[in-house]
Structures are given as structure tokens and as C-alpha cells.
Design a protein that fits this description.
Strand order of the largest sheet of chain B: 1-2
CATH superfamily of the largest domain in chain A: P-loop containing nucleotide triphosphate hydrolases
Shape of chain B: globular
Radius of gyration of chain B: 24 Å
Oligomer: heterodimer
Radius of gyration of chain A: 24 Å
Distance between the termini of chain B: 25 Å
Number of domains of chain A: 2
Distance between the termini of chain A: 27 Å
Order of helices and strands of chain B: HEEHHHHHHHHHHHH
Structural class of chain A: alpha+beta
CATH architecture of the largest domain in chain A: 3-Layer(aba) Sandwich
Strand order of the largest sheet of chain A: 6-7-8-3-9-10
CATH class of the largest domain in chain A: Alpha Beta
Strand content of chain B: under 5%
Helix content of chain A: 10-25%
Chain lengths: 371, 291
């Protein structure tokens, strides 16, 4: 994740031939446009996330890759070959369903081996590979169990094993962890990453959970309303979102509207804001400075610098254990969110409600957005 | 409160059964009621002993010695078995079609299956007489299409019984099958396709196994009452081999032999106990499975 794929940073496309390529794909259901003229590439060995609010078209995109939906327009290439005419049962991709879709009339082994039986693989080999898969998902000895005897977490593993046993070119994961409780979900996220590294298979995950997508994925495609909003590695999406919408969807951000001056600083109702870079914005443009809550400092006294400092009163405190979220009401009646790590074990928070506080941040803390 | 259901069971099922069982152990007489002994408490303990002594298994003995009863039982089982198989073959595509229809279409389609119940069963069977008779609709159509040259006599035959039974019991087959198919998770079919299973094979590997409880429920729901069916064979069937329901009717009303009629009924009940209990168990299991 850290190296960030320098070549991929800018681009929606990768230079060398991608494994999967969506080419101007549009999907309409009646008059509803689920996916609109969308193009994107997914590379070999990549853990790729499709992220967005519900109804953004991410699941439709995944289902088109699996073959359950056909694009209204456009092509979908797998290894440079158009797979749109290929029916789902002949595509070398497998899907793990959100509901797991395990066959209730078959045992664990029957479920996992189902895909291989369709290819008339010899019984002995099926048994071997089922055992291998059970070991991989850490459920050894579960072969004979009935599906209704399994816990939610165990079902999730069986579903994963079933979708991996045919060694697909691409593994599609449709909200694979949504049904798990929070703690199990967090553990399983890391396991998924480990599994993907070990197998080297391309994973495409659909999720609405931005935290999950950042933990597991090499690159994230953020979608809204059937369109691609931004496609980049997690850190870039978080630190350098390309729009107010993305900045607001991934994590939290306070936006300060202003006008870019000729000296590269922003003039706003809250004063002069110094920034490290202005991106695509040109002097005179209306811009927004996006600030993440954890990058803002809070103090009782006025800071020495006369820029990037605003004052206000604490209007709300959300104690979250490891940190506290403060909502600070500023002079222009806008609210700025600040996250302060709770470094002592005293409990409580260093600032109280209605306290007069000063907020400040270094020039490199914010991102200048033009849209 | 807990006892209330049992009270119902005793009043509506157990008490009538005990009476029928008692009559089956009696002898026919030319009297009112046409059997003896009659249960009478006024004679005291001695009367009760005498009552017990007069009971006999003669009627049951008759059932096993006279071939006509045995043949009728076999005939009934045969009609029920063959009809149930035909019902499964016809009912399955019906139920599958409804279950796979668009959501909004399903209630009217189910309604259409149930709609015949709004007309008297007897009238519907009479309508079949009309259709099947020599100058009826069926022969008319067949001759116009030049499939047959002369009218075929459909009535008074086993074919007519099968047509009548299958027609009358179709809703009892379709509804449980529909219920089983309708609640099946569609993503299971997608999962099968995803794992390399073509559509036709998915039907056999996933749809059929998952609808088996519905099919079994439908089959038992049809088989059990068809064995005792009286009206359909009486109106549409011939007179060579009678179904057990017809024999029972004639013993009771024509021969006024209540004990033999009751013995037939009791034997039929014992015969049907096996499929009935298996139906019960099936219901039980699907209830537990649903939890």
C-alpha cells in the first residue's frame, strides 16, 4: 500500500495490459441509469475496491463482471477478450455473495466442491482440494457439517473457500464482511489481505465501508450515481481527494470556502489561509480548503502565527475512547470538527463544553479543492 | 387453556372415531339403529359385560376373505399413486412458473389456482361429464382437429377418473410446491451459475432438491384424500372395479351394513396412517428448519 503504485497514481488506466478493463460501460434498468459510461482498469494481482454509497452502481459493476447483468453499452475485457457474450457459468471469475448463498441441502464439502464437480474433476482430486481449501480458511475437519450447523463467521469462510476452489482469474467479493460483527470483521479484513497476497489472485471487493476499503485495497474506485468519482490508492484518496464529495465521503472533512489569491494563499471569511500547494486551482478561482479533523490542533491560547488560526467555542464533544471529537462553533456560525487523541488515562477531555478555543493547522495539513 | 386444543381433538376426532370403531365391532340387525349391541348403561355392570361379549371382529374378517374389498383397496391405492405422479408432473411446472413470475403477477396467478374452489366441487365434476360425454366438448374438438374419426367414449372409464382426480386436486399440489419454490433464495441459482453450472443442471442440482419438502407435502396432501375419493369415481368412473370409497358408500346406504362400512373406514384409516404420520413429521421438520 505504501509504495502507492507511482504509475497508477494519476491514472484510471494502467500502461501494461490490464487484467480487467471496463470500456465505456453503461447499464440502464428501464429509465434508471445504474452505471454511466464508466471506464476503468483492474491490474494483475491487484486488490481492488469499489466503494460508494448504496445505489451508486458498484454492485451492478461487479454483477456485470460476474455475468449476472449485461451492460447496455460498452465492453468488458478480461485478458483483452470481450467477455460480455460469455454466460456466467463459463466465465473464469467467481463470486462470494453478500448472503453467502450456500446450498442448504449440501454439506460444507458439498458446497466447496460444487464448482469442481461441474468440471467433472475426479472425486479424489475434489476431496484433496476441498481439504486444502478448508485448511486455507482454517476450518479443517468441517467437511461433513451441515450449513445450518455453522456460525456466521464459519459460513463466511465456507463461502470464501467455495469461490476460491476453482482458482478464478478474478475473485469478486460482494460486501463479504457485512454480516459479521465488528470485531470479527476487523480480523477478517486482515485475513483477506493476507490471503490475497498468498494466492496472488486479483480480488475485487464491493463495499460501502470506507474504512474497510482502505484497509484491504491496493486501489479504490470511489463511485457515486453510476459514475467514477476518483480512483487511487487509499492514502491518496484520503489525503488528496479530488472533490468535496470524495473528501466528505471518505472520512470527515471541514470545508472552508474562499478565493485563491495571487500569492497562493486563500482569502476566506475566517481569514487568510496558507496552503502548501494549490493543485489545479488558479488565482481568482473559488476554492475550498478541506481539513481532516485529526490534522487540526486545538489550544486555549492564541497561536503565535497569524495565519491558519481561527477561534470559536466548543459546542459538542463526542468521547470515543481513543480520541474525542470536538465540534467548534466559529465566528461565521460554521462548525469545524477536530479530533484530539486522548493521551492520558485520566478519562474525560482536556476541553469542556463552551470553552473558548483556538484552532490552527500547518499549511500542509489541508487540500485545496476546486469542485 | 392448554387443554382446549385437546378438547377439540377429543370432540371432533377421537369421539367420532371411537363410535365408528365400536360400530365396526358390532353385528347388523334389522332394527333402528341397524346394529347390535347398543351401548346401554341402564343395565349396569352385567349389561356392560354382555355388551363386551357381543362385540366381534367378524366385519374385519369379511374384509380379508371377500376379494372385492381387497381389490377395491388396491384399486384406490393404484388410482391415488398414479394420480399423484401425474399431479407432480403437471403441478411442478405450474408452481415453478408462478414462483418465477414477476412479483406483482404472483398473487393473481395464485388466485387463479384457487379460483375453482369458489364453485361447488360437485358442479365442476358434473361439468367434466359434459366435456367427456360422447357428444361433448372433448370429442368435438378432437374430431374437428381430425385426431379421431369417431367419438371416443371417455366416460365410465379409468381415464375419466384420472382426468377428474387430477383436475380436482391440482391446487393441492401446486400450492405447497409454489410455497417451497417461492421462498427459495434466487442468489442460490446465481451461485450455481457462477460455479460453472448451466441453467438446466442448476434446476436438477439446486431447485429440485430444495423443493422436495414442498413436493412431498403436495404428494401426501393429494394421495391421502384420493385414496378415499368417492364422488369422482362414482360420477366419472365405470362399474368394473370400484374404489374403496364407493364400496363404503354402498355398504352403508345400499346394504345398510353399518358394521362392515365402519370396518372399511377403520381399515382405511389404519392404511393411511403411514402417509399421514410422515406428512406430520415433514411439517414438524420444516417448522424446526424454519427456526
Amino acid at each position: 500500500m505504501a509504495d502507492g503504485g507511482k504509475a497508477a497514481q494519476e491514472a484510471t488506466t494502467i500502461e501494461k495490459s490490464p487484467l480487467v478493463r471496463f470500456e465505456a460501460v453503461t447499464k440502464r434498468f428501464g429509465s434508471i441509469v445504474a452505471v454511466e459510461a464508466l471506464s476503468l482498469d483492474i491490474g494483475h494481482d491487484e486488490f481492488f475496491a469499489l466503494l460508494g454509497p448504496s445505489g451508486c452502481g458498484k454492485t451492478t459493476l461487479l454483477r456485470m463482471l460476474a455475468g449476472f447483468e449485461l451492460p447496455t453499452e460498452g465492453r468488458i475485457l478480461l485478458d483483452d477478450e470481450d467477455i460480455v457474450p460469455v454466460p456466467p457459468h463459463r466465465r473464469p471469475v467467481n463470486m462470494m455473495f453478500q448472503s453467502y448463498a450456500l446450498f442448504p441441502h449440501l454439506t460444507v464439502a458439498g458446497n466447496i466442491g460444487f464448482g469442481l464437480r461441474q468440471e467433472n474433476v475426479a472425486r479424489a482430486e475434489i476431496a484433496d482440494r476441498v481439504a486444502e481449501m478448508l485448511a486455507l480458511v482454517r476450518l479443517p475437519g468441517f467437511d461433513g457439517r451441515r450449513i445450518d450447523q455453522l456460525s456466521g463467521g464459519q459460513r463466511q469462510r465456507v463461502a470464501l473457500a467455495r469461490s476460491l476452489i476453482k482458482r478464478p482469474r478474478v475473485l469478486l467479493l460482494d460486501e463479504p464482511l457485512a454480516a459479521l460483527d465488528k470485531k470479527l470483521r476487523a480480523e477478517t479484513q486482515f485475513e483477506l489481505v493476507e490471503l490475497q497476497r498468498k494466492l496472488g489472485t486479483t480480488f475485487v471487493i464491493v463495499t460501502h465501508d470506507q474504512e474497510e476499503s482502505m484497509i484491504v485495497a491496493d486501489r479504490i474506485a470511489v463511485m457515486d450515481g453510476g459514475r467514477l468519482m476518483q480512483i487511487a490508492p487509499p492514502a491518496e484518496i484520503y489525503e488528496r481527494p479530488n472533490s468535496r464529495w470524495v473528501a466528505g465521503f471518505i472520512g470527515e472533512a471541514t470545508m472552508i470556502a474562499g478565493r485563491l489569491g495571487t500569492d497562493g494563499s486563500i482569502e476566506s471569511v475566517l481569514g487568510r489561509m496558507r496552503v502548501a500547494g494549490t493543485g489545479k486551482a488558479r488565482p481568482g478561482d473559488t476554492v475550498w480548503l478541506a481539513l481532516r479533523p485529526e490534522k487540526i490542533g486545538m489550544a486555549a491560547e492564541r497561536p503565535k502565527e497569524d495565519f491558519n488560526a481561527v477561534t470559536g467555542t466548543v459546542s459538542e464533544i463526542g468521547y470515543r475512547g481513543e480520541m474525542s471529537i470536538y465540534k467548534v462553533l466559529l465566528s461565521d456560525r460554521s462548525v469545524m470538527k477536530v479530533a484530539i487523541t486522548n493521551v492520558t488515562a485520566r478519562g474525560g477531555t482536556p476541553f469542556s463544553l463552551h470553552d473558548l478555543v483556538w484552532l490552527s493547522w500547518p499549511p500542509e495539513a489541508g487540500v485545496v479543492l476546486t469542485e | 387453556m392448554v387443554l382446549l386444543p385437546y378438547l377439540w381433538l377429543v370432540c371432533l376426532f377421537l369421539a367420532p372415531f371411537v363410535i365408528v370403531l365400536k360400530i365396526s365391532l358390532s353385528q347388523t340387525t334389522l332394527a333402528q339403529p341397524p346394529y347390535s349391541p347398543v351401548f346401554d348403561l341402564s343395565a349396569g355392570w352385567a349389561g356392560l359385560v354382555e355388551f363386551g361379549r357381543q362385540l366381534s371382529l367378524d366385519s374385519f374378517g369379511l374384509l380379508f376373505t371377500d376379494l372385492i374389498y381387497l381389490l377395491s383397496y388396491l384399486k384406490s391405492l393404484q388410482v391415488a399413486a398414479i394420480s399423484t405422479i401425474i399431479l407432480l408432473l403437471i403441478g411442478y411446472p405450474f408452481a415453478y412458473g408462478i414462483a418465477r413470475a414477476p412479483r406483482g403477477w404472483q398473487p393473481p396467478l395464485v388466485m387463479a389456482v384457487v379460483l375453482p374452489f369458489w364453485t361447488s366441487f360437485l358442479i365442476r365434476v358434473y361439468a367434466w361429464i359434459n366435456i367427456l360425454q360422447r357428444d361433448g366438448l372433448l370429442n368435438d374438438v378432437l374430431m374437428r382437429l381430425h385426431i379421431v374419426d369417431a367419438p371416443v367414449s371417455w366416460l365410465s372409464s379409468d381415464t375419466a377418473i384420472y382426468i377428474g382426480v387430477v383436475y380436482s386436486y391440482l391446487p393441492f399440489m401446486v400450492l405447497p410446491l409454489y410455497a417451497a419454490l417461492e421462498k427459495m433464495d434466487e442468489t442460490l441459482l446465481e451461485a450455481a451459475a457462477d460455479l460453472g453450472c448451466p441453467r438446466w443442471k442448476t434446476f436438477w442440482l439446486v431447485v429440485v432438491p430444495l423443493s422436495l419438502p414442498g413436493a412431498a407435502a403436495g404428494a401426501l396432501l393429494c394421495f391421502i384424500p384420493i385414496v378415499g375419493e368417492f364422488v369422482i369415481p362414482d360420477l366419472l368412473g365405470g362399474s368394473e372395479t370400484l374404489m374403496i370409497g364407493q364400496i363404503l358408500w354402498s355398504e352403508f346406504f345400499a346394504n345398510r351394513d353399518w358394521p362392515v362400512a365402519s370396518a372399511i373406514a377403520v381399515t382405511l384409516l389404519v392404511l393411511l396412517l403411514v402417509p399421514m404420520l410422515s406428512y406430520e413429521r415433514l411439517q414438524q421438520r420444516s417448522l424446526e428448519g424454519g427456526r
